[in-house]
Amino acid sequence: MDDFDIGSRLKAMRTAGNLSQRQLAEQAGVPHAQISNIEKNKISPSISTLRKVLGGMGVSMADFFEPEREDNPGPFFGRDELIDLTSRVAINAGAPESGLLVLRQIGDARLHNLQILHEVYEPGADTGETMLQHASSEGGYVVEGELALTVGDEMRILKAGEAYLFDSRQPHRFQNLSDTRTIVVSACTPPYL
């Protein structure tokens, strides 16, 4: 996904939906200038911001990144057949010390009503100060490293071998506060990306 152009894709989808930048900004609840800056690739939106913007058009993250998908009905998937949803999408745009977060999905989440992700958090990776919230349940297992997880008012650093499970309608945030890579395998139903 190195050459995935978020700005051009957003502009094409906004235009196809007959929305002006101002209309999309109002529907998404973000500043008008933010839409313009994303479309011009002046900024890379955080996952939560991109989800908010896409929500203003009624588009899921999976649909937004659809051109990157290859159909494999399964039931088996090779390493190269995972769907890269957010590879190299900047997290906490504007913070140069932020690390990368890579999310790779197994198969067609919508078809099975279950999203299974292989997540890699480089040091400093963060889903953003704006807490995530969506109508799902999600759980995960830390395979390697440490994952700082905030759910509501609680925060805990989970180490390899530890896990989580919660109602995703609660505000939540994922961070790698360590100086080593963190790997997580997670599941969410219904799918939200």
UniProtKB/TrEMBL annotation:
<dbReference type="InterPro" id="IPR011051">
    <property type="entry name" value="RmlC_Cupin_sf"/>
</dbReference>
<dbReference type="Pfam" id="PF07883">
    <property type="entry name" value="Cupin_2"/>
</dbReference>
<keyword id="KW-0238">DNA-binding</keyword>
<dbReference type="InterPro" id="IPR050807">
    <property type="entry name" value="TransReg_Diox_bact_type"/>
</dbReference>
<dbReference type="InterPro" id="IPR010982">
    <property type="entry name" value="Lambda_DNA-bd_dom_sf"/>
</dbReference>
<dbReference type="InterPro" id="IPR014710">
    <property type="entry name" value="RmlC-like_jellyroll"/>
</dbReference>
<feature type="domain" description="HTH cro/C1-type">
    <location>
        <begin position="10"/>
        <end position="64"/>
    </location>
</feature>
<protein>
    <submittedName>
        <fullName>Cupin domain-containing protein</fullName>
    </submittedName>
</protein>
<dbReference type="InterPro" id="IPR013096">
    <property type="entry name" value="Cupin_2"/>
</dbReference>
<dbReference type="InterPro" id="IPR001387">
    <property type="entry name" value="Cro/C1-type_HTH"/>
</dbReference>
<dbReference type="Pfam" id="PF01381">
    <property type="entry name" value="HTH_3"/>
</dbReference>
